[in-house]
Amino acid sequence: MMIISARKYAPALKMIDEVNFLKPQKSYLHNGIPVYMQKGGSQEIIKIEFVFKSGSYHQEKPLQAWATANLLKNGTKFKTSEEINQLWDFYGASLQVDAQKDITSVGFVALSKHLVTAMNLLLEMIIMPEFHEDELVTFLKNRKQKFLVNNRKVQYLARMHFAELLYGTNHPYGKRLQESDFEKLTREDLVTFHHNNYFPANCICLVAGNYPETIIKTLDKSLKKFAWENIKLNQVPEHKSEITPKPKHLLPRPNTLQSAIRIGKPVINRDHPDYHLLSVTNTLLGGYFGSRLMKNIRQDKGYTYGINSALINLLRGAYFFIASQVGRDVKNQAVEEIYNEIEAIRKQPAGDAEINMLRNYLAGSFLRSFDGPFMQSERFKEILLFGQDYSWFQQYLVTLKSFQPEDIQRTAEKYLHENDMVELIVG
């Protein structure tokens, strides 16, 4: 029998008073690697992640950081790529490799009872990769094919060209991948990048989940099986961004039915006092399904299936962007409506219903981002890399509970104006 609620009104919004932060314990391995441990969860599962402060920002040649990270699993001095994959499958463990712009993380999720076996295999991959020539050739051939396919997609082209417009062709954040780059990368490039970046002084270790009290001894026992050379930590050169002086750009693609739109600008990073309010402002504009851009351009005008805005935080910069894919015949109208919404968020205060829905969404999203030890580990990794502490999250809670419509208007007036945006249309 179906039970129908007699409630006439939605339950009142209950704002978050506090979040149970799973603050880590800190220890060190025998070679000086700091280990941050967050214990929690009822299941016998553990996640271990080594985070190296090396990404595409640190590479000397395109693809160098990405290929190095992805080929760690394609053979060591003692195991072939097939043997490595079979071992991960046999123990039901999930290998996780992620090469980003500023960092590279290599880790696994496994049953706690397989901790030692998984750890030994992970360390062998990190410390003793072989970078076989045939594996590199196959990897580059496959990635080049994907690159050529993506290069026919307006959304992909917009993302790549937009970064170049924001930072310049010579900046690591803006340098755009070329087809010829796949022919220039050599095995020696991978060996060099690995030697210069994958060493103890350049990494941290994150442990989360249901791990034994002897975790440090267990990790050290595995680590002592390998000779992991430590080298001097070099100063990373700073690169100055070169924002294009031309604000509007069109990249024609005559044979496409769709146009990709990117509009944005460099903005303050997450250590700025205004950042939390800018984050709230961004969410109202285009950061969730109930945003103003979605209501106008998707629901009212029907120009697109989706449009969003976001803040991207990098260790050496940050930027705001709006992205959508629309029919070619309505691209100019869509751009006009985007700018109308940017102006409106400065001039038209949000009503109570809009503010309540926004606050409710942000509160729920914030709570979900701390759900379980693995998510807690991700949040801690963020503040650790940016040199922050848990007070950053506490300040966000203060902002979440207290922001008013005029705060959003004031923030938008300070940071969101059409005349300082970079605009790109592809197609």
The domain tally reads 2
The CATH architecture of the largest domain can be given as 2-Layer Sandwich
Q: Outline the low-pLDDT stretches.
A: 1-5
CATH evolutionary superfamily of the largest domain:
Metalloenzyme, LuxS/M16 peptidase-like
Strand order of the largest sheet: 1-2-6-3-5-4
CATH C-level label of the largest domain: Alpha Beta
**What's the story with the biggest beta sheet?**
6 strands, mixed
Beta-strand content estimate: 15-25%
Total number of strands: 11
- The coarse silhouette is globular
Structural write-up:
The protein is an alpha+beta fold and 427 residues long. The chain has 2 domains: 25-223, 2-Layer Sandwich (Cytochrome Bc1 Complex, Chain A, domain 1), CATH 3.30.830; 248-426, Cytochrome Bc1 Complex, Chain A, domain 1 (2-Layer Sandwich). The protein is built from 15 helices and 11 strands. It has helices spanning 64-70, 81-90, 115-127, 133-150, 154-167, 181-184, 187-197, 215-223, 275-287, 292-300, 331-347, 352-368, 373-385, 391-402, 405-415, and strands spanning 25-28, 34-39, 45-52, 94-99, 104-111, 203-209, 248-251, 258-266, 307-314, 317-327, 422-426. It has a 6-stranded mixed sheet, with helices on both faces. It has a 5-stranded mixed sheet with strand order 7-11-8-10-9, sandwiched between helices. Helix 1 (64-70) packs across helix 7, helix 3 (115-127) packs across helix 8 and helix 11 crosses helix 15 (405-415). The protein is globular and about 65 Å long. The termini are far apart. Residues 1-5 have low confidence and may be disordered.
